[in-house]
Structures are given as C-alpha cells and as structure tokens.
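Input.
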Amino acid sequence: MAEDEVLGSAGAAGQTVTVQERELRRLLLDETTFDAAVEEYFSIGGLQPGVEFAPGVQVEPDPATRERGLVGRALLSLVNDILTRRRHARYERMVEEHPTIPRVVAEGDSWFLHPLIPDVIDQLTSGSEPRLAIKSYAAAGDTLASMWRTNEVLAAAERENAAAILLSGGGNDVLGDQFPAFLNAWSPDDGTGPARLLNENFEKKVGHLASLYEQIALEARRRLPATLLVVHGYDYVLPGVEKPDRSLHQNPGKWLGRHLTAAGITEQGEREDVLRHLLDRFSDEVLGPIVSLRNVAYADTRGAVGVHEWADEIHPTADGFNAVAARILRTVEDRL
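Output.
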C-alpha cells in the first residue's frame, strides 16, 4: 500500500478506516512518518491509560497476534516509547550544547507527555534558549501508584546528578477510571456545598495518594538530599456538556461530564464546583503534607489556564500548558 494511501485517510466524520498492524507499526518506526501517523490514527486516551486509536480507526492484527486488545496496547506503548526516546535524545543534545544548564528529571502523566499537544515538558524545553534540560520518563495516562512502582525517576536523577525532579502525578488517580465511584447521587445542598457529592471512596483515595506522595518525598530526600522535588496540583478542569455550545468554547462531556450527568449533577456551575472542590482537596490534603519538607517545592498551577485554553475536559491547549509551565519554571528557579 502506498504511503499516501495510508496517511490522510482517517478522521473523516462517520468513516471507518482499517489499517494493518504491520503497516501502522512501520509508519510509527519511520522517523519521517511518525508524527503524521500519530496525528492521523491516535488520540489522547482521555481518562484511560496512554493514547488510544482515533474514532473510526480499526487496526487489523497480524496473523501471529490475533488478540486485538494486545495489539492495541502494544502499539500504544510503542507511541509512548518513541516519544520518550525522542525526548531523551533532545536532552542529550541540550546538555552537550549547554553544559551549565540545570539538569532535571521528570516523571508524570499526559500533562507531561501529550502526543498531540505541546505539553508542559515541551514548553519548558523549547525555544532557542531553554532554561532547563529535562530527561522525562512521563507516559500519558500513568497513575501515581504506577510511577512509584516502576520508580525510574530517582535512579535517573542519581545518574544525571539532577538539580530537580518534576513530578506530575495523581490526576489519573482522581479523574480517571475511578472518578464515577467517587460521586454521590445529587441531593439538595445541606450546607456542606459540593463536599456532599463526594463519598467515602474519594476520602480513601485522598488518604492513599497522600501516603504515596509522602513515601516518594521521603525516599527522594534519603537518596538525593540535594535534589529538589517539585510537585503541582493541576488546574480546575472544565467538565463538558453533552451538546456543547461552541460559542462558549465548551467541550463534549465524554469523560467527566457524562459521569456527572449519570449522578444527576447536571447544572454546569455545580459540576464545576464539584471538580474545584476535588482538586482543592488534592492540592491541600495530598500535596499539602509534604510541602513542609525541605526538599519539596509546590507549584500552585490552579487558575493558570484560561477558560478558552482547554483542548478538552482535562487537557489544556498549548497556550494553557505554557501557562502551567511558566509557574513550574518560576518555582524551580526560585528554589535552585
């Protein structure tokens, strides 16, 4: 199949496009076609791990790997791996060209690795005069528990003699697959405000994440006492609606919005209040306890993203990510 018969065929409204697994793998492994293939055949996975196939794209497995689910996971993992290798190569070039630049290691989720939008790490390392050299191990859709389990970042920070570690973790834990399990059915305000709409499952999650962050911070201090650990609490995500009014720059509610609707939480202001409350609890009760540690710095990124700077319910646009990156950079430079 000719290359121009593959690329450029997906994405039409209502159209289903089938691509052979071996052909898609070839496009991804070719440096000259990787970017176009990712844009054409994949989308960010929302609240699911990693990236996913774009609407209407069907991948036909090779005869040796007939399990469609396994094929999908393998190809999506390949996208993340290639993006990570690219970033590592950029890091090596940067430290060679700028020997005195601060070396930083990063771990995180889709706010640090978004295949389709210039994310926080892209913003911090772009331009002719970058302020930081960042070796990133982020993966779209990663959870804090998974980051701690693999624990690549501390070993990498030791090898690189890193001045700082950037950590973006917890967003998928509170806004991911478990999000609907945190919601109570709507009830009239009893004086407790949006807190009444979050249940004991959320309380347990807050405690679990606080414990994980404490373990990470204490282990980082033990192994790397001179290295700064920088954390952030995301921004107030905007739940979408089923029939978005484009004049108001609203996004479809296919992730957060549909679960809020299912719980009977339908008034947009109240929906936003629930998520503001959830993310304030994350910042104050998950990250708050470790901020007093001498090796930890907290970048408060709440309110950084403008109302028209959201690409979807949970990811900023490039401009929105740039605003978040600016706050993180200021925090790092204030402490180094």
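The beta strands are 17-20, 42-44, 51-53, 57-60, 103-108, 133-136, 164-168, 228-232, 296-299.
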